[in-house]
Amino acid sequence: MTSPLTIAIAQTDTLDLCIQNNALNHIELIEQASSGGADLVVFPELSLTGYVLPKLSVLAMNKRDATLCELSDVAQAQNIDVIVGCPLEVNGNKPAIGAVRFFRYGQIEFYCKQYLHQGESEWCSPGSKSFVFELNGLKLALAICADFCEPQHAIDSANLGADIYLVSALISCSGYDADAGILSSIAKRHHVPVVLSNHVGQTGGWECAGKSTVWDVNGKQVAMAESNNQGLLIVQFDEQTVNVVDVVRENSVTSLETS
User: Fold this and answer.
1) How far apart are CA 137 and CA 130, in angstroms?
2) Cα–Cα distance list, 259 to 42, 139, 245 (Å)
3) Alpha-carbon distance 134 to 227, whole Å?
């Protein structure tokens, strides 16, 4: 690793079923993240479509989808890696709650959520493989929401050498405190920073908590976004300690605490 890794955490107010509007919102935030010096920007669960489970079968995307191709072009133009949330087609099965990673060099990778919340299996099929990738010499593991509630997911990520645990989620106002406790414990148990990207506003009937957060390797909260604003929280990880060394305030997102 020749330089610190800078991650932009996107906190979005997603409009259910409005893919075109959501994509334009993503593009604006990707451009801001690039301008802020980020190497990677990560968006919440189902950020492109909203959490509309009964509609996922008609919204599901594949690598030829026009919206995904457009976002890939933007990632290349802005010289930044991007992770967005969307439903993905699964051959011969229900769609998956997925994430797409766009490389700045044009490649695209897909991840399907492995562990489903109660009720999601009616509309979705689970994935079977963990998603760990390398950027700036660090290994990052991606979890989508309920993934982090299953201890085996973090264990598998640690066994694959993850240095940072990324979480793309939809966490409600009522569920935030309990989930924050789980994420803090993952950071402390596995001695890795944990990064949460969450929604604000409403999606799928849920009132979302916002409060996109970073925990350090000791499980201490070191940065949190405002609960009611969309925007970016840009965080830099030191190449030696793999810990949070800087937090940048961007676009209506306020850092509450820095280490």
Assistant:
1) 19
2) 21, 22, 7
3) 30
Q: Do 88 and 112 touch, CB atoms closer than 8 A?
A: yes
Please calculate the CA angle 188-193-194 and round it to the nearest 5 degrees: 90
User: Do strands 164-168 and 138-144 pair parallel, antiparallel, or not at all (unpaired)?
Assistant: parallel
Q: Report the C-alpha gap between 2 and 181 in whole angstroms.
A: 33
Question: Residue type at 6?
Answer: T
Q: What is the pLDDT of residues 145-159, one digit of tens each?
A: 999 999 999 999 999
Which residue type sits at 131?
A: F
Q: How far apart are CA 113 and CA 73, in angstroms?
A: 25
Instruction: Count Cβ atoms below 10 Å from residue 122 Cβ, excluding itself.
Output: 10
Could you count the other beta carbons within 10 Å of the beta carbon of residue 181? 11
pTM of the predicted model over 0.70: yes
Q: Give the helix, strand, coil percentages of the chain, each rounded to 5.
A: 25, 30, 40
- Collapsing DSSP to helix, strand or coil, 158 comes out as helix
